[in-house]
Each structure stands twice: as structure tokens, then as C-alpha cells.
């Protein structure tokens, strides 16, 4: 005789299932339809990619996101869909996407394995180039080391780097791939220097301008934009050297392939139509021959 009736078994099963983690049910488009709102996240201090513009935002990445918004309106049949801009703090981009605070994070962000545990990435929309801003009167030894030259005559080894960087203060944005890269290089080269983290590019550049940091590392185009706008006196300069290149993408919710497909379709169409090249010309000073070749690589067929 079966001592467990069907009803108790069903109740027990329901209790067990209720205690299990909910299966992934990411569906950005359903959430957008229900709220009649698409929320675009961005860094407000990352011109020319994204910056404040009154109660909205502007920049290269914002223009691309607005094209995606148009596609969402058409896909959902919601011509009156509200598009809302949400400024996000540095180092909070991933949590803003994973928590559903924003539906897409527009500011180009390099993907890494740690971030991919939590969010997904679109096709690349830009190739980031890590560089540094320094004071024009920086010591020659520092400039040589940062430019990849030998700081002193004689044998070149790890201590040669330290002779250019020792007792220097280097600044980086907090919590991003730049901080990770700098820390790893300092470890590998045995660099003896002080590393400080900042909340924004404005803050990092200001440290260099005030002599509180000897170099600030960030994307080269972002640095050049800030220097031209905020420090036209010529006391600061951006190095020509590019330390690292990294494809940068928009972040979307992990596991939502329908929404990522929509985003990638829009971006790929923009690559093929030449719209992204026009956006490069408008915000980034034009696309180099190398960038144009990458357009063909990044666009999905």
C-alpha cells in the first residue's frame, strides 16, 4: 500500500521547488512592454561616448542606443514608448544591468570573463585604446618609461623601469579593466609606485593638473576630449603610446538572447550601412583605415 497520497506528494514537490533558485527568465522586451519604458544606462563623464545633456544624454554611444530604441519601438509596436536615461557611477555598470535597473548599458565597455559571469555583451561598437595623461613638465625619466623608452643608459632590466616610476603616483578609474591591467603590470615588472583609484575621468585628470598624481590612465580619445575641453592652456598632454587595445561593447542582461539579437542586428546593420562610420566622424574624429577594417569584422552577417 502506498503510504503517500498524490496530494501530499504534490505539496512536497511544490515546497521543494519553491526553495530552489528561480530559473533564468530574462526577458527585457517583456519588461519594457509592461512598463512602456526603455531605460538606457550610461556613464555621464565619458565624452565623447556618453555625457550629460540636461535631463538626457549625448554622445557616440547614445546615438547608437537611440537607434536600438527605435528598433524596440517597432518590434513591440509601441510608437509612444518612453526612452529614459539613467546615469550610472563607475564600477556600478554591471550591477545596473544585472539587477534590471537599466535595460542596456550604452557606454562601450570591454568584456572580460568576470563580467561575463553576470552580463552579456553586444558586438563591439568601438576599439578602446589605453593611454595616459601627464603634465608637460614631467621628469624626462618618467616620460621615457611611460613611452616605452629606456629611462637610463646601461643594461635594461626590471629596475630600469623603477628608476623612472619609483616614488611616482599613478591614478586609474576604480573597479575597471584599466585598474586590473595596471596592477598586473606593476606586479609583473616589480614597479614600486603608488596607485590611487578615482571615481571619474575628471577627478583623475584633475589630480595630474594639481600635481597630486604623475599620470592618469584611461581611454585615449576620452583623455584627449577632456584635455581639449577643460585644460586648453597646454599644461597637460596625452601620450601617443597605446598600451592596450580592447574591443568594447554594450552590456545587456545575461541569458536574454532575444534582446541581444535585436541589439546586434541594429548594430550590424549600422556597420553595413555606414551609419557607424558617420557617428565616428561626428564624435570620434573619423574612422581610421584600421577601424574601418574592424567594422567588417565586428558586423555579424
From TrEMBL:
Domain Solute-binding protein family 3/N-terminal: from-to ranges: 37-287
Classification via Pfam families: SBP_bac_3 (PF00497)
GO cellular component: extracellular region; outer membrane-bounded periplasmic space
SMART domains: PBPb
Record's keyword terms, sorted: Signal, Transport
Signal sequence residues: 1-26
GO terms of biological process kind: amino acid transport
Matching InterPro entries: Bact_solute-bind_prot3 (IPR051455), Solute-binding_3/MltF_N (IPR001638)
Family: Belongs to the bacterial solute-binding protein 3 family.
Protein name: Glutamate/aspartate import solute-binding protein
Organism: Pseudomonas fluorescens
Gene that encodes the chain: gltI_1
Amino acid at each position: 500500500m502506498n503510504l503517500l497520497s498524490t496530494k501530499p506528494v504534490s505539496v512536497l514537490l511544490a515546497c521543494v521547488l519553491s526553495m530552489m533558485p528561480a530559473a533564468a527568465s530574462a526577458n527585457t522586451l517583456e519588461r519594457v512592454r509592461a512598463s512602456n519604458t526603455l531605460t538606457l544606462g550610461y556613464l555621464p563623464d565619458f565624452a565623447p561616448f556618453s555625457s550629460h545633456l540636461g535631463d538626457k544624454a549625448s554622445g557616440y554611444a547614445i546615438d547608437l542606443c537611440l537607434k536600438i530604441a527605435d528598433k524596440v519601438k517597432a518590434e513591440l509596436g509601441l510608437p509612444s514608448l518612453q526612452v529614459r536615461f539613467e546615469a550610472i557611477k563607475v564600477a556600478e555598470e554591471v550591477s545596473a544591468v544585472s539587477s534590471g535597473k537599466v535595460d542596456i548599458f550604452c557606454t562601450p565597455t570591454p568584456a572580460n570573463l568576470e563580467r561575463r559571469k553576470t552580463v552579456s555583451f553586444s558586438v563591439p561598437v568601438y576599439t578602446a585604446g589605453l593611454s595616459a595623461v601627464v603634465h608637460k613638465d614631467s621628469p624626462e625619466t618618467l616620460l621615457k618609461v611611460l613611452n616605452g623608452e629606456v629611462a637610463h643608459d646601461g643594461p635594461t632590466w626590471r629596475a630600469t623601469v623603477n628608476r623612472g616610476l619609483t616614488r611616482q603616483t599613478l591614478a586609474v578609474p576604480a573597479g575597471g579593466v584599466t585598474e586590473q591591467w595596471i596592477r598586473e603590470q606593476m606586479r609583473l615588472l616589480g614597479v614600486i609606485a603608488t596607485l590611487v583609484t578615482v571615481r571619474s575621468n575628471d577627478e583623475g585628470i584633475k589630480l595630474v593638473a594639481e600635481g597630486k598624481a604623475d599620470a592618469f590612465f584611461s581611454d585615449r580619445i576620452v583623455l584627449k576630449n577632456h584635455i581639449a575641453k577643460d585644460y586648453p592652456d597646454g599644461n597637460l598632454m596625452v601620450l601617443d603610446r597605446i598600451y592596450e587595445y580592447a574591443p568594447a561593447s554594450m552590456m545587456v542582461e545575461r541569458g536574454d538572447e532575444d534582446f541581444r539579437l535585436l541589439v546586434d542586428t541594429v548594430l550590424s546593420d549600422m556597420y553595413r550601412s555606414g551609419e557607424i562610420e558617420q557617428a565616428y566622424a561626428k564624435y570620434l574624429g573619423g574612422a581610421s583605415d584600421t577601424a574601418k577594417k574592424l567594422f567588417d569584422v565586428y558586423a555579424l552577417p
